[in-house]
């Protein structure tokens, strides 16, 4: 983890110094998605049977449209045998990006998938409350019965029917005791 922090901070500092934070963030995100969706690409880059220079050529050819700083960063990870840490490095980089941009990231738990407009409306409500941009990801949780639960950092905003029923049940038990 400490090693991943150093790599993430180095890339973020480089991106910031060259006013490329947004571009590097977007491309880094695409790169992580590529590794997830095409595990064979990741495996090819880690393959010891293929000479290191050949693997670097694959990076150059496959990611030709990416920023040279990100391409070189990926090659450094390859040289240092840290390619397996890519996702962890991205998560740390992403947190640095969000901190820099004043973005809070969170989760909306709901019984059914929410429409994009519904998510944006909730994000706007939290923007008014937090005075920071909030980016929420929707996760379906059928155990809620109804309503939503929003988790931002270590805070939980619970408007689920399940929680309301649990509170009512506890209140009734307390009165009956």
Outline of this structure?
By secondary structure, this protein is α+β, with helices and mostly antiparallel strands.
Task: Walk me through this protein's architecture.
With 177 residues, the chain is α+β, with helices and mostly antiparallel strands. It has 2 domains: 2-99, Peroxidase, domain 1 (Orthogonal Bundle); 102-176, no CATH class. It is built from 8 helices and 4 strands; from the N terminus they run ααααααβαβββα. It has helices spanning 2-17, 21-37, 39-46, 52-62, 68-79, 86-101, 116-130, 161-176, and strands spanning 103-110, 133-140, 148-152, 155-158. Strands 2-1-3-4 form a 4-stranded mixed sheet. β3 (148-152) and β4 form a beta hairpin. α1 packs across α6 and α4 runs antiparallel to α5 (68-79). The protein is elongated and about 75 Å long. The mean pLDDT is 89.
Uncertain runs: none
Binned, the helix content reads 55-70%
Taken from the alpha-carbon principal axes, the silhouette is elongated
Query: How far is it from the N-terminal to the C-terminal residue, by CA?
Result: 50 Å
Report the CATH superfamily of the largest domain.
Answer: N-terminal domain of the delta subunit of the F1F0-ATP synthase
Structural class by secondary-structure content: alpha+beta
Largest sheet strand order = 2-1-3-4
Q: Strand tally, please?
A: 4
Provide the CATH top-level class of the largest domain. Answer: Mainly Alpha
CATH architecture of the largest domain: Orthogonal Bundle
- The domain count comes to 2
* CATH fold-type name of the largest domain: Peroxidase, domain 1
